[in-house]
Specification:
This protein has 288 residues and is of the alpha/beta class. 46% of the residues lie in helices and 18% in strands. It comes from Amycolatopsis camponoti.
């Protein structure tokens, strides 16, 4: 039987003093209230109301169990309230700073249509998993090797001048090859992870470039500013290059890609984020 529904009708009728008024308080038809109370009486094996009078007068047994029934109704109402609040509690998601405002807004809108309320926390790759561990966010888009990823973002080199070749070889940046100032490769903080940075630095060393010629910048803004004012190159995705108005080409010596997965304390939160895969991919500039 519906114990909570029966107790709700019982409490309402006892407080209103009649079945009709009590049913109105409980927002149910009077016959439904009567049936629920009758079912409750069968469940307990005792009468709750003396039906020999016009008013709904409690029996001695009814007076004894009324306080417990009232507590059960109050607990049920509190549970409904807490469940509603938990369902609407924002899912705080740590994201890279490469996600632009529009794509994040589109992701949030798509999530809201699925009754998932997202809030975003922008953080560098080294901090996003830690934010999950410390419970400052419920989930994070974390950097992983491309072959272990849910989303993969190919990387290349972008600059102000349109390159003639279809790829950019780091060996062409060696001093004396171009006859002009030494060109640098700027690595933005989002790519300051071993599976991207270390692979590029190994190529740098293999082709004989000095360490400072391929290095991590303090920020994406600083890296882009250096590229805008020189012949330097930015390690980035094709989508980023387009946003910045730069010309992008793959790296000739090595295939580089950002990889992203989901970290979350609760598996259900990770599944909610994965369920928004297409919108997340757009945020990251990832391949479909």
């Amino acid at each position: 039987m519906d114990l909570v529904g029966g107790c709700r009708a019982f409490v309402s009728v006892s407080e209103a003093g009649s079945f009709t008024a009590g049913a109105a308080v409980a927002r149910i038809p009077q016959p439904v209230a009567s049936r629920r109370i009758a079912a409750l009486e069968r469940h307990f094996g005792e009468r709750l109301f003396d039906r020999t009078t016009r008013r709904a007068r409690l029996t001695p047994f009814g007076r004894e169990v009324l306080p417990s029934a009232r507590r059960l109704v109050q607990l049920a109402d509190a549970l409904d309230h807490d469940a509603q609040r938990a369902r609407l509690r924002p899912l705080r998601l740590a994201v890279p700073d490469t996600c632009d405002v529009r794509s994040l807004a589109e992701l949030a809108a798509e999530a809201r249509a699925r009754e998932v309320h997202l809030e975003f926390r922008v953080a560098p790759p080294g901090e996003r998993a830690e934010l999950v561990r410390t419970q400052e966010v419920r989930a994070a888009l974390v950097a992983v090797p491309a072959d272990e990823s849910v989303w993969s973002v190919p990387l290349g080199l972008a600059g102000v001048a349109r390159p003639e070749a279809r790829v950019v070889h780091l060996e062409t940046l060696r001093a004396g090859r171009s006859g002009g100032p030494r060109r640098h490769v700027r690595i933005q903080p989002e790519d300051d992870v071993p599976h991207v940075r270390d692979r590029l630095l190994r190529v740098r060393d293999a082709v004989g470039l000095p360490p400072a010629q391929v290095a991590v910048a303090a920020s994406l803004t600083a890296a882009a500013a250096a590229v805008f004012g020189s012949a330097d190159l930015l390690l980035c995705s094709a989508a980023q290059a387009e946003q910045l108005g730069l010309h992008w080409r793959p790296v000739g010596e090595v295939a580089l890609a950002r990889g992203y997965g989901v970290a979350a304390a609760l598996g259900e939160d990770a599944e909610r984020v994965r369920g928004l895969s297409a919108a997340v991919a757009r945020c990251l500039g990832a391949e479909a």
